[in-house]
């Protein structure tokens, strides 16, 4: 096998494994979060819902077709527009690494939900580092570093190559 073929197989295979694992992990955690919220007769919030909203209420910075959707603008206000402990659980799947202040985001989600379920991309996958919107790399739940490859500005073209599913937004 030539070095180029090996590289393409490695990166392509890693991408496929990453996609399959991410979807499995999200479905397992979503079931747990919904079970927790339903036991308390409270709704589920999906913060950073993206193209696959999973909550009874859904929040994102881009307009989405989702039930009870609330659009926020770069999370500039210090508080989300929900009362304290309104939600039984909050989902934050692959959104925390895009925020300007992860600690503030977690504190705000903890304010509005009884339990917060957070998933961040694995630092072992190359797309975690190369994604143009990842400001932070999470080593552990509360341990994160600035992404040294993050560049301020409009990187939609780079993201379109790494995440072709985002082309549907245009």
Describe it:
- With 170 residues, the chain is of the alpha/beta class.
- The protein has one domain (3-169): 3-Layer(aba) Sandwich (Rossmann fold), CATH 3.40.50.
- The protein has 4 helices and 7 strands; from the N terminus they run H-E-E-E-E-H-E-H-E-E-H.
- The protein has helices spanning 3-39, 102-112, 126-130, 156-162; strands at residues 44-47, 57-60, 69-71, 87-93, 113-119, 136-138, 144-146.
- The strands form 2 sheets. A 5-stranded parallel β-sheet has the order 3-2-1-4-5.
- Strand 6 (136-138) and strand 7 form a beta hairpin.
- It starts with a helix and ends in an 8-residue tail after the last helix.
What's a concise summary of this model?
The protein has four helices and seven strands; from the N terminus they run αββββαβαββα.
């Amino acid at each position: 096998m030539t070095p180029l073929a090996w590289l393409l197989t490695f990166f392509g295979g890693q991408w496929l494994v990453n996609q399959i694992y991410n979807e499995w992990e999200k479905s397992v955690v979503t079931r747990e979060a919904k079970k927790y919220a339903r036991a308390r007769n409270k709704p589920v919030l999906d913060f950073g819902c993206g193209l696959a909203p999973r909550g009874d209420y859904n929040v994102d910075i881009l307009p989405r077709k989702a039930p009870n959707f609330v659009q926020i603008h770069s999370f500039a206000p210090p508080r989300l527009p929900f009362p304290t402990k309104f939600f039984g659980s909050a989902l934050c799947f692959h959104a925390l690494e895009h925020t300007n202040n992860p600690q503030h985001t977690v504190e705000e989600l903890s304010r509005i939900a009884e339990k917060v379920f957070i998933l961040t991309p694995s630092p072992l996958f190359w797309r975690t580092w190369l994604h143009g919107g990842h400001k932070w790399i999470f080593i552990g739940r509360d341990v994160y570093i600035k992404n040294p490859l993050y560049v301020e500005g409009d990187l939609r073209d780079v993201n379109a190559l790494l995440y072709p599913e985002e082309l549907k937004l245009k």
